[in-house]
Predict the structure.
Amino acid sequence: MSLLHNRKVLLGVSGSIAAYKSAHLVRELIKRGAEVQVVITDAAKDFVTPLTLSTLSTRPVYSAFIEEEQKTYGVWNNHVEMGLWADLMVIAPASSNTLSKMATGACDNLLTAVYLSAKCPVFVAPAMDLDMYANGATSDNLALLKERGIGIIDADFGELASGLVGKGRMAEPEAIAHHLEEYLKASLPLAGQKVLINAGPTHEHIDPVRFLGNNSSGKMGAALAAAARDLGASVHLVLGPTQATLDLHGMQVSRITSADEMLAAMLSDFAQSNLTICTAAVSDYKPASRSQHKIKKTDEGQSMVISLEKTPDILQTLGTQENRKGYLVGFALETHDGEVYAKDKLARKNADAIVLNTLGKEGVGFEGDTNEVTVYTADGKTFSFPLTSKITLGKSLLELFMNEFNLTNA
Ligand code: C5P
């Protein structure tokens, strides 16, 4: 889901030929789930009609303090209310005239009055011909606005309406929407933090068609990954073979099959990671050798023996890495004496916390959509989380780790 979802965006449109792209920008913002209120200057109406913008935004478009048809009723467009309503304001296109008014505080139209009243972050996407853009007056105005905290969405280089080629084209609507999303992302609590998670089963192949594996769905790990992503972290999920439908957008996903491949993928990113969570149900053993051909049934005897050897313990290997700088969390799945085994794993695998699922209870375990866990930390604290969906639990666990390990916006 886009970070613009449910955000209230004030879109100011000023007089530039690029105003025709504002219609597309409204669509982009709406598509990402934002509510869009357009405020347009009189000059902009020559380039794009208010009717187009109001149809696309499904709201009336405002341009004057008192619209013609409202004069009889004494109704006015309250610029202060609009300024306070918005979570974000973006002026696109921002003409040289509007930029100049913003810099000096001139307030002779509704758009500049709304801008002066806005308490939210404000962005401008300048658009003008190359010489106007290069003029010292424009660059000074932009520098001043930037100094005051206005976000500048730089103009692009390219062909301009005048036929000339240079810098001055308004950034594309997708790029403007993306810029706003990146801004919102940077203010999230885990922005700048790297989170590495493994999830799902591993398959240890006996021959090309058979393997040792388990029913792990990867849902718990994917829920933690989604929670970390939503808190602003950059997430790398190393995922074993699973058929489950998982929310994986906005994260790096490495699909692997075996424990050896999972270890390699984890080691490639571990040194950079601020928080690593091992939820994977890694197979403890793998066939000592993998047959190149499908093993045929024979007529000899009633049994066959497959010789197994241990897979690497990924959590333990990470726990003992010399380059370890981040926090490390493991999972444990026990049928009895959970607390004893969980605490043993905490010490033996050198983790900072172990999340214990107790098997045998309805709704708890690695295939379903719900889970109930207890977290034991290396500094001796215990936290219990009652039965709930893995999605909700993922969020609660991530918040716990964020607080316990002091992970903050870097
Ligand atoms: O030792 P046990 O398998 O019970 O420990 C569970 C924890 O260790 C989980 O976090 C699991 O992801 C991890 N593990 C591992 N590599 C293995 C076996 C388990 O990383 N080969």
User: Anything to note?
Assistant: The chain is about 30% helix and 25% strand. The pocket of cytidine-5'-monophosphate is lined by residues 259, 278, 280, 282, 284, 311, 313-315, 330-332, 345 (CB under 6 Å).
